[in-house]
Fold this sequence. Notes:
The chain is mainly alpha-helical. The chain has five helices and two strands; from the N terminus they run H-H-H-H-H-E-E.
Amino acid sequence: MVHYALARLLWLVPTLLAMALVTFVVMHATPGSPLDPVAEGANPLSPEAQQNLAAHYGLDRPLPEQFVVFVANELRGDFGHSFVYKTRTVGEILLAAFPVSLLLGTMAFVVAGPPREPCGLLRGSRGSGPHHDAGTQRARGEEAPDPLSGKGRGML
C-alpha cells in the first residue's frame, strides 16, 4: 500500500508539469494578443508602448524561458493581477473564495457520507454472483454474460 501511494505521489509531478505545458501551449496558440492594437475594442498602442508592455510581462523572451517563469510563478502561488478586479491579485481572490469552497465541499462530503457506508457494506456482504460478476465485467469493458442464457455477448 505504501509503495502504491508513493508511486502515485511520484506521478503527480510529471502530471502537473504536463498540465502546465498544455495550458501554456493553449494560451500561446490562441489567436490574438493583449498587445494587439487591432483587436476589437482595444485601444491602439504605439509600437514603443507594445514593446514596453511585452518587456514588462516577459512576452519578449523565448517561449522555453516564458514557460519556466510561468511554472516558477505557479509554484510560488503568484498568479498575477486580475483583469476584472484591477486592484486585487488572483491569489487574493482565490484566498477569499477558499473558505466558501471548503464549506461546500465539506457539506457535500457529510451529506454523501452516511448513505455511502451502508451501501458499500450491503454490496460487499452479498458476495459474488451473476449480477455482481456481470457488473464488474461491464465496468472493465470485458465480455459480459447474457442475463437470460448465461452465454457471452461480446464487448459492451
